[in-house]
Amino acid sequence: MAAFAANSLLNRAGLAEGAIGPAGFALIRVISGAVMLWVLLASGRKKLPQRAKPDWISAGALATYLLGFSFAYVALDAGLGALVLFAIVQVTMFAGALRIGNPIPALRWGGMIASMLGLAYLVWPSDDVQLPFLPLVLMAVSAIGWGTYSLIGRRSAEPLQATAWNFIYATPIVAIVTLPLAWEEVLSTSGALLAVTSGAITSGLGYALWYRVLPQLTASAGALVQLSVPVIALGAGALFLGEVVDPREITASALVLGGIAFGLIVRK
Questions:
Q1: How confident is the model at residue 165 (pLDDT cuts 50, 70, 90)?
Q2: CA separation (Å) from 84 to 69, 161, 199?
Q3: How far apart are CA 222 and CA 216, in angstroms?
Q4: Where are the transmembrane segments (predicted)?
Q5: What secondary structure does DSSP assign to 149-211, as a single string?
Q6: CA–CA separation, 45 vs 71, rounded Å?
Q7: Which residues contact 43 (CB under 8 A, 6 or more apart)?
Q8: Higher pLDDT, 101 or 243
Q9: pLDDT averaged over every residue in the chain
Q10: Which range among 11-15, 86-90, 124-128 has the greatest average pLDDT?
Q11: Which H or E element spans position 244?
């Protein structure tokens, strides 16, 4: 979850400082993630890994998430963007759990409701909370992509291999969308380093770990734990990016974390 939160901070830091544009960030991120995962996949082998059959649904979901994520952060703070993202991710994954017949305990429903109330309280329109329409739509599309990608990941038997090939096959999709735009954007050394860090470490390695953990979780539990990401992003955004955390955000974070704890209680 810390890796997921770091992606929000790295993306927002690059865009907020004008060090890189959203198209360039998304493209460098997916390429560096693909390279890092390919190196890990090939290391220790006598022969290069054989090309896996493309899972275009998974690769498309990953590309959708990466693109919507980068362009949404043009106008959203790191914490607010993460809140919107993972609130909709939770709805997507709960819906997926119901569709596949995955039972959801009553306590988990209660935890989800409490956490969502915390998020609703935080983003409820006020003079202090600005909710730009288009970035919110882009982040919602990104969330559906990530929720779909996570649901597919629960079936993964080889997490590193699956993540590596998903990044490789997502690269041309992202490139087709971003290349016409990236030529006209600013690209500094610091911006490129932020995108590479996001792609190679917090995305490539972080998502491989996520695919490793997902099969051990139910879809609803996997959805619920991700609501801790906005809280981590809010705190880190205040610490590293100078974003202001007010009492409203502290109260909302307490509701979110309390809901997660409640929802993960196992009744024997």
A1: very high
A2: 11, 30, 21
A3: 9
A4: 20-44, 56-76, 82-100, 107-124, 130-152, 164-183, 189-211, 223-244, 250-266
A5: HHHHHTT-SSHHHHHHHHHHHHHHHHHHHHHHHHTTS-B-HHHHHHHHHIIIIIIIIHHHHHH
A6: 38
A7: none
A8: 101
A9: 85
A10: 11-15
A11: none
d(CA 194, CA 189): 9
- In degrees and rounded to multiples of 5, residue 181 shows phi and psi of -95, -35
Question: What confidence score (pLDDT) does residue 108 get?
Answer: 87
Residue 22, burial from CB neighbour count under 10 angstroms (0-12, 13-18, 19+): buried
Do 72 and 135 meet the contact criterion of CB atoms below 8 Å apart?
yes
- 242: region left, alpha or beta (phi > 0 left; psi from -120 to 50 alpha): left
Give the pLDDT confidence score for residue 103 in this predicted structure. 80
Is the Cβ–Cβ distance between 10 and 194 less than 8 Å? yes
Residue 181 to residue 77: CA distance in whole angstroms: 23
- Dihedrals φ, ψ of 132, to 5°? -65, 135
The CA distance from 29 to 38, in Å, is 14
CA-CA-CA-CA dihedral for 133, 136, 118, 266, to nearest 10 = 150
d(CA 38, CA 176): 21
Q: Where are the domains of the chain?
A: 2-263
68 pLDDT above the threshold of 90 = yes
* Helices then strands, each counted (H, E), the chain: 12, 0
